[in-house]
Specification:
Layout: H1 3-7, H2 15-21, H3 24-36, H4 42-58, E1 63-67, E2 79-81, E3 83-85, E4 91-93, H5 97-101, E5 102-103, E6 123-127, E7 134-136, E8 139-148, H6 157-177, E9 186-200, H7 201-205, H8 208-213, H9 238-253, E10 258-263, E11 269-274, E12 277-278, H10 279-299, E13 302-305, E14 319-327, H11 344-359, H12 361-367, H13 373-376, E15 389-390, H14 393-404, E16 414-416, E17 426-428, E18 439-441, E19 446-448, H15 458-481, H16 485-500, H17 512-521, H18 529-533, H19 539-547, H20 553-606, H21 614-645, H22 651-677, H23 690-695
Parallel strand pairs: 1-8, 15-18
Antiparallel strand pairs: 1-2, 3-4, 5-6, 6-8, 7-8, 9-11, 9-12, 9-13, 9-14, 10-11, 14-19, 16-17, 18-19
Pfam family, one: GSIII_N
Organism: Clostridium beijerinckii (strain ATCC 51743 / NCIMB 8052) (Clostridium acetobutylicum)
Family: Belongs to the glutamine synthetase family.
Length: 697
């Protein structure tokens, strides 16, 4: 057995471990709960808990924790040891079914968007038995959902699990109407491609902006960036390769299917991509992946940056969310087959997605919104903020036929010959790929490319699941009443294509022409997180989330509040950090340099020698002028921050103030500082430069 087989899932209480350690009746009962959602009886939970504890202790664990995902966007955990005292002054190791199933962390200190007051502290965590427990840092980690005392969702996982049930219910209705009597469950699957930057830890430690905000608030454009396109898929440096190797091994131990690794477009940027998993498991795994990458980076004297735009002017980082629907008996519902025009099942599910995306673009947009992503969308290698779907030539042709009547043909794939006899002909796909599309069909799945690199993928996936469940529900309603099934299917497909074809765009999403065309089509172009947040209080959006039991209106409104509150806090922190660095690092350094320059000029003048010192004097004048401008902009930013601090109006209006006053003034201040960086002697400049950070790894 090779090393990978030996270590893979070695730290997971997997199905194989359960089958080995649980009595047959207990294993069968637990599997029934996992697969069918039946209630887990207390006596069964006790047996499972005891087996989990024994397994964990054998592997060195001393504690257990309910591992959950609050609205902070990261994970949370409270660790309790297995020990309980005995009457003779010793301890025994115990773990009950009650402790496995339910936890009670303090709910008052997590973001709740008004669902909980500070004094209302009680909250609950509930075991998600569909996601396996695992070992991490000497603790047994139990994936859980997190809710308030009154049952409102306070986390990312709960609405995701609800949405998976909603889609399963509606997809089964469609399949049953099509005559499928064997499929018992429909699941969504996801494979998130994770982009990130690695820089030397010493460089990170010298940048207060990276430490406090995750991105550089200052930094002049380096002489070389990514314009030579020599980093993408380039040879991986040994130091980075060692890091990647250890990350793979740590992820494999946790049962995470880490598959692909490579250099990305920007210098110091990389990507890790796993094989797809069930959506809730994939979400858990992605949270672990981000945590593991940071921990392993520290061991290699590196720092892993997950911010969407840590460096201005070069490629930002995203998380491409590869989403599909499959059945328990092995069908991929988004697999077109060799003749898509004849595949009614595929076309129905494809059109359900098309209609969903066109009807609820604002929900998809807010699911990919955060302060960091505002820097990225529309920039290098990132899709625009306009939601559209890329289908490719083959499927676009099929839909054009459907609009006019039944489709009768599909463009077929061919062979690609390279012109070298020793190279074999390559099978050529029926359509090209489009890297500028935010929502692209890529063969048997959709790739949602807008998702922020630092974010949980739970948000975008519960939105996708819910809106597709809604359109599948509408399709099922019609199919179940149909007297002529084929005619009804054709009518459904034709109606969707005619009314929602505006969302399909196969062209260049980066172009200015597309922005104008999208506006003509009536597609929204939502520029910032603040404006995107409104989607969570939109009546239509709240109605669909409530209809399918994913979020109540109160829960949706709370997420609107949380999104804006988080945005406002982030921009405030960035503004305060900008001021601190400008006043305590950059301005003193520039003063020191101009003083040195002035002393040099005076020293030369004192010699009495008539020499040309115009270079020195012009440099001193230019730098001093910029320094005065920088100082003025510091004062203006201080006033903008003070205005926001004292604002007592609506949270949305405060967000707009932070976005269009505070943030814009930060950029104005930065422009002066970045220009000064190019003029001041590097021995005086107090910060590692972009060249230092991006090329000295």
């Amino acid at each position: 057995m090779n090393k990978i087989n030996e270590i893979f899932a070695s730290n997971v209480f997997s199905d194989a471990v359960m089958k080995e350690r649980l009595p047959k009746a207990t294993y069968k009962a637990l599997k029934k709960t996992i697969e069918k959602g039946t209630t887990l009886e207390p006596d069964v939970a006790d047996v499972v808990a005891a087996a989990m504890k024994d397994w964990a202790v054998e592997k060195g664990a001393t504690h257990f924790t309910h591992w959950f995902q609050p609205m902070t966007g990261i994970t949370a955990e409270k660790h309790d040891s297995f020990i309980n005292p005995t009457s003779d002054g010793k301890v025994i190791l115990e773990f009950s079914g009650k402790e496995l199933i339910k936890g009670e962390p303090d709910a008052s200190s997590f973001p709740s968007g008004g669902l909980r007051a500070t004094f209302e502290a009680r909250g609950y965590t509930a075991w998600d038995c569909t996601s396996p427990a695992f070992l991490k840092d000497g603790s047994l980690c139990i994936p859980t959902a997190f809710c308030s005392y009154n049952g409102e969702a306070l986390d990312k996982k709960t609405p995701l699990l609800r949405s998976m049930e909603a889609l399963n219910k509606q997809a089964l209705r469609v399949l049953k109407a099509l005559g499928n009597t064997t499929t018992k469950r429909v699941i969504t699957t996801v494979g998130p491609e994770q982009e990130y930057f690695l820089i030397d830890k010493s460089m990170y430690d010298a940048r207060k902006d990276l430490i406090l905000t995750g991105r550089t608030l200052f930094g002049a454009k380096p002489s070389k960036g990514q314009e030579l396109e020599d980093h993408y898929f380039g040879t991986i440096k040994q130091r980075i390769s060692d890091f990647m190797k250890e990350v793979d091994e740590e992820l494999w131990k946790l049962g995470i299917l880490a598959k692909t690794k490579h250099n990305e477009v920007a210098p110091a940027q990389h990507e890790l991509a796993p094989i797809f998993s069930t959506t809730n498991i994939s979400t858990d795994h992605n949270q672990l992946t981000m945590e593991i990458m940071k921990k392993v980076a520290a061991k290699h004297d590196l720092y892993c940056l997950l911010h969407e735009k840590p460096f201005a002017g070069v490629n930002g980082s995203g998380k491409h969310n590869n989403w599909s629907m499959g059945t328990d008996d092995g069908m991929n519902l988004l697999e077109p087959g060799k003749s898509p025009h004849e595949n009614q099942q595929f076309l129905l599910f494809l059109c359900a997605v098309i209609k969903a995306v066109d009807e609820y673009p604002s929900l998809l947009r807010v699911s990919a919104a955060n302060a960091g992503n505002d820097h990225r969308l529309g920039a290098n290698e990132a899709p625009p903020a306009i939601i559209s779907i890329f289908l490719g030539d083959q499927l676009e042709d099929v839909l054009e036929q459907i609009e006019k009547g039944p489709a009768t043909s599909s463009k077929s794939a061919s062979e690609l010959t390279i012109g070298v006899n020793t190279l074999p002909p390559l099978p050529k796909d029926a359509t090209d790929r489009n890297r500028t599309s935010p929502f692209a069909f890529t063969g048997n799945k959709f790739e949602f490319r807008m998702v922020p690199s630092s974010a949980s993928i739970a948000g975008c996936n519960f939105v996708l699941n819910t809106i597709v469940a809604e359109t599948l529900s509408e399709i099922a309603d019609k199919l179940e009443k149909a007297t002529d099934l084929d005619a009804e299917i054709q009518a459904i497909l034709t109606d969707i294509v005619k009314n929602h074809k505006r969302i399909i765009f196969n062209g260049n999403g980066y172009s200015d022409e597309w922005v104008a065309e999208a506006e003509r089509r009536g597609l929204p172009n939502i520029h910032s997180t603040v404006e995107a947040a409104k989607a969570m209080i939109d009546e239509k959006n709240q109605a669909v989330l409530e209809k399918h039991g994913v979020l109540t209106r109160v829960e949706s409104t709370s997420r609107y509040e949380i999104t804006l509150e988080n945005y406002n806090k982030i921009i405030n922190i960035e503004a305060l950090t900008t001021l601190e660095m400008a006043k305590r690092q950059i301005i003193p350094a520039v003063i020191q340099y101009t003083t040195s320059l002035a002393e040099s000029i005076n020293t030369i003048k004192a010699t009495g020698i008539n020499v040309d010192i115009s270079v020195q004097t012009e440099s001193l004048t230019e730098i001093s002028t910029l320094l005065a401008s920088l100082n003025k902009n510091v004062s203006l930013l201080e006033k903008a921050v003070e205005k926001a601090d004292n604002f007592e109006g609506d949270i949305f209006d405060l967000g707009m103030m932070y976005r269009y006053e505070v943030f814009e003034q930060m950029n104005t201040l930065r422009a002066d500082a970045d220009k000064l960086e190019t003029l001041v002697d590097e021995e005086f400049w107090p910060l590692p430069t972009y060249s230092d950070m991006l090329f000295n790894v």
